[in-house]
Amino acid sequence: MPEREPQPQGGASELASFGEELRREREIRGISLKEIADATKISRRFLESLETNDHKTLPAPVFTRGFVREYARYVGLNVEEMVNRYNFAAANDDRIEKPPQVEKYAKQLPRDISPKPSPKRGIPPAYAKVDRNAIVVVIIAVALAAVAWWAVQYNKRRLEATDVIAVTPVTTPKQEPVTPPAPEPVAADDSMLRMTVEVIANSWVILEADGETAFNNEMVQGERKEFEAKEQFRFRTIGNAAGLNLTLNGMPVPALGGEGEVIKNRVFDRKSLGELRGEEPPANP
């Protein structure tokens, strides 16, 4: 009987675990389905179907892969890895396009086993008969002689210069001590807002600078990063408020919360910088 080809693994249980993993990673980062739906323009109904393994509600797998790709990119997962895992989990879905069969063994051309003539050896050049060790000895001897000649000439010039200095007295005019001017205070450079983030405990961070996403990933203990913005920083999510030490243009920012506390939409702008410096807000005209 002909040997049966192995069937692809996957199915409902793998799809269920895949959907559960998506939901777990989203909840760890404190992201709602509405946020993903608003950002990716994917129907919330389809996102819920992904997480609950309701594959009958989802469109054809070629479209569902696009949903998985956008979902993973927004949450901060490895896009290609999650798409490959979806393909593996949904391998038994009859809507998946099956790859064409490939011939098991490629055809090989017959090898040429006819005897080959040995390469001809010509007459070696004249320099090949010279002993290389003798050449190395000559080069070392010349180098040592050059170093010895340079040392003799150097000592001779140094002695002549010492004799001239000993014969000719040199008088140095007395100089009055000069007091250096006091340094002028340097004005703080506030042309840009600079946010320094030092991580003392692991935390998931989503940070925007002037409305653009500057960081969306997990920060690890001991890590230190700097960001710049013209007008505003917005921490969309901080998964562990006590895990970050923040500095705005050199001014330390008070702790944002306790251990494990999730912070949402915390804004730092030029007004915040003035408050950290203790400056009085400008009076209303």
Features:
flat; 285 residues; alpha+beta; 434 Repressor (Amino-terminal Domain); 4-stranded antiparallel sheet
Describe the overall structure.
The structure is a single chain. The chain is of the alpha+beta class. Among the domains are: about 10-90, 434 Repressor (Amino-terminal Domain); about 195-275. About 35% of the residues lie in helices and about 15% in strands. It has seven helices and eight strands, in the order ααααααββββββββα. The chain has helices spanning about 10-30, 35-40, 45-50, 60-75, 80-90, 130-165, 270-275, and strands at about 195-200, 205-210, 210-220, 225-230, 230-240, 245-250, 250, 265-270. The strands form two sheets. It has a four-stranded antiparallel beta sheet. α4 runs antiparallel to α5. The chain is flat and about 100 Å long. It starts with 11 loop residues before the first helix and ends in a 9-residue tail after the last helix.
Task: Summarize the structure in short.
The chain is α+β, with helices and mostly antiparallel strands and 285 residues long.
Topology record:
Layout: H1 12-28, H2 33-40, H3 44-52, H4 61-75, H5 79-89, H6 132-167, E1 193-199, E2 203-209, E3 212-219, E4 224-229, E5 232-238, E6 244-248, E7 251-252, E8 263-269, H7 270-276
Antiparallel strand pairs: 1-4, 1-6, 2-3, 2-5, 5-8, 6-7
